[in-house]
Amino acid sequence: MRVQKNDFIKYAHDEESADDQEETGWKYIHGDVFRYPKHKYLFSAALGSGTQLFTLTIFIFILALVGVFYPYNLGALFTALVVIYALTSGIAGYTAASFYCQLEGTNWVRNLLLTGSLFCGPLFVTFCFLNTVAIAYQATAALPFGTIVVIFLIWALVTSPLLVLGGIAGKNSKAEFQAPCRTTKYTREIPPLPWYRQTLPQMAMAGFLPFSAIYIELYYIFASVWGHRIYTIYSILFIVFIILLIVTAFITVALTYFQLASEDHEW
């Protein structure tokens, strides 16, 4: 915030002293920052899936804090995850289709298909592998065939229709993206950046700092999993989750600002 304040003061002083002075930093690329992303369908699908997972997490925390997941009911959490995920799929469809249409996308059906498979696809592959290993070793953790059929029916009869209905509602919404400034016709060339401003170092930094905020609580969670104990301190976990959201938001704003200050408009 101090860096932003100093920049605002500097730019305000430059405007008062010399209007024809060449702009620099984030002010120099104001005509490129609101340019649509290259892979708008993937961006919209990630927004939709992320919104659904965030809503799912909030509902799970609410149920945990009111005492629904007591220690002797081990299947309650799994059931709640499946049911709430199915019921919130409309949120993913609406968010993805709404943002996709705001970005002037045309193939909204492909966007919905990607939204529905962006999280379920990798999860299904991982589940099939782990369940096959559990069946091969005759472990009790393997899900029976009847439970798998029920989950598939929930996905086919609840998740998919709600996803389509949410997508239709988002497609027909009247929301339009209006940039606060005019986007230039030609893309401005990004100047050479130092190595620590590249994508991979930025991703590592953006992931390490939020992870460090929840590392201690993750230690106790994995200790409970590996030690075959039941984790019941949901109130502390909820506080840690709020801290994670705050740290992630601040890190995102800070890294985006420094990227724009380096005249990199592909934020």
TrEMBL record:
Of the GO CC terms on this record, one is:
Golgi membrane
Question: Please, which domain of life does this record's source organism belong to?
Answer: Eukaryota
Q: Which residues cross the membrane?
A: 41-70, 76-100, 112-137, 143-165, 203-222, 234-258
State the family it belongs to: Belongs to the nonaspanin (TM9SF) (TC 9.A.2) family.
Fetch the InterPro entries from UniProt: EMP70 (IPR004240)
* Protein name per the record: Transmembrane 9 superfamily member
Location(s) in or outside the cell: Endosome membrane; Golgi apparatus membrane
Q: Which UniProt keywords apply?
A: Endosome, Golgi apparatus, Membrane, Signal, Transmembrane, Transmembrane helix
Picking any one GO biological process from the record gives:
protein localization to membrane
Q: Does the keyword Signal apply?
A: yes
Record keywords: Cytoplasm included? Answer: no
The record's PANTHER family line, in alphabetical order, gives: TRANSMEMBRANE 9 SUPERFAMILY MEMBER 4 (PTHR10766:SF170), TRANSMEMBRANE 9 SUPERFAMILY PROTEIN (PTHR10766)
